[in-house]
Amino acid sequence: MPYSQFKAMLAITKASLRSITRSPSAMIFSFIFPFIFILVFGFIGDNATGPSFKVYLDPHSDTANVLYQALTSMKNIKLVKYDNAQEQHSELIKGRIAGVVLISKTANDPLHPFAISLKSTTSSNDKWPQLKSLLDNLINQVSNKMYPDRKAYASFNFNPATDIETVREYKTIDFILPGQLGFSLLSAGVFGVAFMFFNLRNTLVLKRFFATPINRSYIILGEGLSRVIFQLVTAVVIILVGRFLFGFTLIHGVQTFIDMMVLSFLALVVFMGFGFIISGIAKSDSTIPPFANLITLPQFLLGGTFFSVDAFPKWLQPVSKAMPLTHLNQAFRKIAFEGQNLWQVKTEILILLLWGVVAYFVAVKVFKWE
Fold first, then answer.
1. Phi-psi sector, 212: left (phi>0), alpha (psi -120 to 50), beta
2. CA gyration radius, the chain
3. Which domains, and CATH codes, for the chain?
4. Which ranges constitute the DSSP H helices of 33-121?
5. Of 115, 166, 271, 330, which sits 20 to 30 A from 191 (CA to CA)?
6. Could you tell me the pTM of the whole model?
């Protein structure tokens, strides 16, 4: 029977397909990652209500009118309350609320029985222009509904020159740099440690260390310390480049810089725990990237690196807020732009440390010396 080149080709194709489907790297990079990207950006793109804004309604506002009812029904706007005016102004200065809205009756303008006023700060330069557009639309919708054949139901009293308090300008770099720094620390802790200790074990270097008087714990500490020092130098470069080339806000100067470095150190130690886990469960160096990306990529996309967690659907936000990178990014931004200290971001630090306890507990169980 003559040799069939075609059947041989099909046999090779079948064997190759089987090999591909058994490869964790191929399956993850071909199916899981694209699916994650589609989900994340699909949820953002399909968010029909658009971005949401926290707004403080002035307590002197008239609430017995259709404008107030329409405002409270808007899905884009969340009305917030504070215990006192000092707390409200502090939140406004920090850029946590988009602005203060006042709805009032007009005494001498029968064509516009009500007026809406908006006040904000330069800390919310990324928010108040969109909020202004929402309020404009609100007035037009109410006017068209109640008085389709006459002038607007309300006037919009807003002058950026007088109604925007100059505090400090919120720039894109103030949001992006903390996220990029956080992801840099996460990647270094996970990928760096996983590859380093797997290679040390695979090449029997760790086994050779046993012939020396050094204790096992000091072997890990020595290798880990080198990674920490290198990555902290990288963090210094990222922050300084952002500060001097792009105007990244370090609200208290050197003190803010020191707080960010301390937080970077804590985060790196926590993230290294995930690297130890991967180095312990990996069977070969080709399985390290898929495992590492399963830890890092969801946090990169959902941890507030490029956009606020508020941009996601409400059911997905708890998932984002459970991730350690989310809390690290939030802590960085609060320290750098809002001027908080390490004690004031203790909640974020505590959650990071809890993740560290879990990570190192698992790492101890799966870590192998040879």
1. beta
2. 27
3. 53-165 (3.40.1710), 172-366 (no CATH)
4. 33-45, 66-73, 85-93
5. 330
6. 0.75
